[in-house]
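Hey all, quick one. A colleague (J.T.) asked me to put the zinc ion job into the tracker so the inputs and the structure tokens live in one place instead of scattered across chat threads. No bug as far as I know, just bookkeeping. Sequence used:
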Amino acid sequence: MNEVLERIAAALGPGAVQTGADAQGAAVDWRRRYFGRPLALVRPASTAEVAAAMRICAHTGTAVVPQGGNTGLCGGATPDASGRQIVLSLARMNRVRELDLLNGALTVEAGCTLAAVQQAALEAGRLFPLSLAAEGTAQIGGNLSTNAGGTAVLRYGNARELTLGLEVVLASGEVWDGLRGLRKDNTGYDLKQLFIGAEGTLGVITAAVLKLHPLPRGRVAAIAALQVAQQALPLFAFAQERLGPRLTGFELFSDFCLELVLKHFPGSVAPFAARHAQYVLIEVSDLDSERAAGAALEDLLAQALQDALIMDAAVSASLAQFQALWALRDNISEAQAREGPNIKHDVSIPISRMAEYIEAAGEAMARAFPGSRKVVFGHIGDGNLHYNVSPPEGADPAAFARDTAAVNRVVHDCVARFGGSISAEHGLGQYKNVEIARYKSALELELMRAVKRALDPQGIMNPGKVLA
Ligand code: FAD
Ligand code: ZN
């Protein structure tokens, strides 16, 4: 065994260091776009063990790639092919450390899956609102490191806004104990925010204090039909004004998205007898009852119909219908994948300009890649669109995939024109680490590099991710 691994095995126990097939399994990303070759997979069981491993890595200049559930979509948790990087898995650190109900806070270790955190909150009669399709596998450490979003950001914020405190093992192996459960703390720079969204490039998150919310007793969903995407914007403003914090989800998807779901998920049912150009899924939750949530949503939709803001609406009347409506939205990504390979974008635009963006990007793509099929859907209430592009019908997907950089350029240059961001949720990883240099100013990039140098002077934390 290599000397670095021998030292780590001596500190953590031999079972904590895996090589060969076990390690190789951790060296491929979820979408199977990136294939690395790690020195080993290291699986510490405590903060002290993470610190011991990091001290050895700092001493020997060994690069470390932190890994949670490995569900990330930009290759952030995949090592390079040098055979010299260690994948550090947090999977064994999966304990709930503390529940403080009066403070509305839950302290968990980084390797808890998001579903386990949600379950722990539920058992305490509270809600941990972060929710995304990969929640059974993704870990809270990975969620915080990517500042994950999902379908309830509109109401509760993203991972950044759900975090009160962090414990982080630094590149040096020192442990920063920032596990504070404070809602107000103005004692200088907010260090935890540096590590949130840093994609493992500044340190290893080992535990977090998370914010809990009251558990709504009623949740109701509806799908509203629109003639054009533009209609979604006044409808959103109206829904916010009428419903305030009861408006929990506001998601847009096109008829082509629905067509793909109906095709690839047999048993799915279209919400209306007639087809419409665009749809909005609206979720309303109410702390007291489902009846109150339903009444608020029905009122909203009745008024919207009267004002011609929408063409039609279908409201869920049972849990099964609620789930079926959400499935039409949730299954879009998978339906597109079943249709064939596609090029994904995860952009954000000021909400007021989203419809304009969809039109402008559509025109630019039609000019540059005639016949390309746009699967456009997302969290319109957060200004976040998944602007995915499939090749023209019958075209060779491999040839289209070779044009990825050119497709990205068209979509992202259009984002820049509208004052948007090229990653709203998924992060940069090794997928957009070069691309980002085109859209951030030299000053902003240098400030980011200065932070990186300050926290990781040797450059051993997830090198080659976020910044190329
Ligand atoms: P990983 O993939 O293991 O790692 C992600 C990054 O974080 C890597 O750079 C890694 O090095 C770093 N990292 C992981 N753990 C730590 C740690 N403890 N300390 C420091 N760095 C760490 N994302 C959304 O935001 N919204 C969605 O709605 C959404 N839906 C998804 C649906 C599906 C089906 C899939 C497959 C993915 C989806 N994602 C979504 C992306 C992904 O699930 C999230 O980015 C998730 O937060 C990643 O968590 P993970 O534990 O799998 O992290
Ligand atoms: Zn999303």
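Adding what we noticed when we looked at it: The chain has a mean pLDDT of 96. The longest strand covers residues 203-211.
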